[in-house]
Specification:
- There is one protein chain.
- This protein is an alpha/beta fold.
- It has one domain: Alpha-Beta Barrel (TIM Barrel), CATH 3.20.20.100.
- Helix content is 38%, strand content 16%.
- It has 10 helices and 11 strands.
- The strands form 3 sheets. A 7-stranded parallel β-sheet has the order 3-4-5-8-9-10-11, covered by helices on one side. The chain has a two-stranded antiparallel sheet with strand order 1-2. Strands 6-7 form a two-stranded antiparallel ribbon.
- Helix 1 packs across helix 2, helix 3 packs across helix 4 and helix 7 packs across helix 8.
- The protein is globular, with a radius of gyration of 18 Å.
- The relative contact order is 0.15.
Length: 286
């Protein structure tokens, strides 16, 4: 079993978690839409993750929709006391599986209520507001109105902490002027490094940065240098990519997702992978 404590810990809100967690997106069906082909396998992966020491799971009621949260509840409820569930709102699924912006106060309230019901909790520990000015990447636009709606729900006790997702540095600054932001979740990995400066700023402020698609997303990372380093270390390229993220900055928390127990164990083993200085230098140059 992997020793996740070797990767260290970091704080999100009032909770300190291990720096390798689990992303539940892949537990839904193809395209993150509909039920999984094998529900029993999805339940097994979740239970294995928690049994292996994972204490941070990322989810959303848009996955499925509703499917992933329902599987989470079936697999893990009542949830272990140390388990942090982080969800997100701001996007909903269209009838054919599209990702649609849902940013009004009424829409955000409904999404929070859906998360509460399907997860079976009285309050959501952390809710990320996903900006949807551009579905695929951060884009300019004010988040004041949707963030104000989440703050109202926070005052009502329906959620405890707020994070941001798919946001620009300017939107992070806007959000921090309005509220305590406990984490930022953006697209970032070894080959997609537009957030380098933002990560450093958040680290200085003690705010967690949670990269989604840490392994490249639907198109896994591929690099000759990455493969060569992995071969030298007796590891897989994706383990090296995760280990690089862990060493990139102490505020980075990983949530690699998978529907396979074997792949889950491979991801968690990255906690114990040491990257020598020469390897870091080669990877940094990519």
């Amino acid at each position: 079993m992997s020793n996740l404590s070797k990767a260290g810990t970091f704080k999100i809100g009032q909770r300190t978690v291990k720096r390798i967690g689990y992303g539940a997106m892949q537990l839904a069906g193809p395209g993150v839409f509909g039920p999984p082909r094998d529900r029993s396998a999805a339940l097994t992966v979740l239970r294995e993750a928690v049994a292996s020491g994972v204490d941070h799971i990322d989810t959303s009621d848009a996955y499925g929709p509703h499917v992933t949260n329902q599987i989470l509840r079936e697999a893990l409820y009542p949830y272990p006391q140390q388990l942090l569930l982080v969800t997100k709102v701001g996007a909903v699924r269209g009838p054919q599986g599209s990702w649609d912006a849902a940013f009004s106060a009424a829409e955000l309230t409904l999404q929070v209520e859906d998360n509460l019901r399907n997860l079976g909790v009285e309050a959501l520990e952390v809710v990320n507001l996903r900006a949807m000015f551009d579905t695929m990447q951060p884009a300019a636009g004010s988040i004041e109105a949707p963030l104000a709606a989440l703050l109202k729900l926070q005052r009502q006790g329906k959620l405890r902490h707020i994070g941001l997702s798919n946001v620009t540095a300017e939107q992070v600054a806007e959000g921090r002027r309005m509220a305590e932001i406990v984490c930022v979740q953006n697209h970032y990995n070894l080959a997609h490094r537009q957030d380098d400066a933002l990560i450093d700023d958040l680290a200085a402020a003690g705010i967690a940065y949670v990269p989604f698609f840490p392994l490249g997303g639907f198109s896994p990372l591929q690099s000759t240098t990455l493969s060569e380093v992995a071969q030298q270390l007796g590891a897989t390229p994706l383990q090296v990519a995760l280990a690089w993220l862990l060493r990139r900055s102490p505020n980075i928390l990983l949530i690699p997702g998978t529907s396979s127990v074997e792949h889950l164990r491979e991801n968690l083993d990255a906690a114990e992978l040491e990257l020598p200085a020469a390897a870091m230098k080669a990877l940094d140059s990519l």
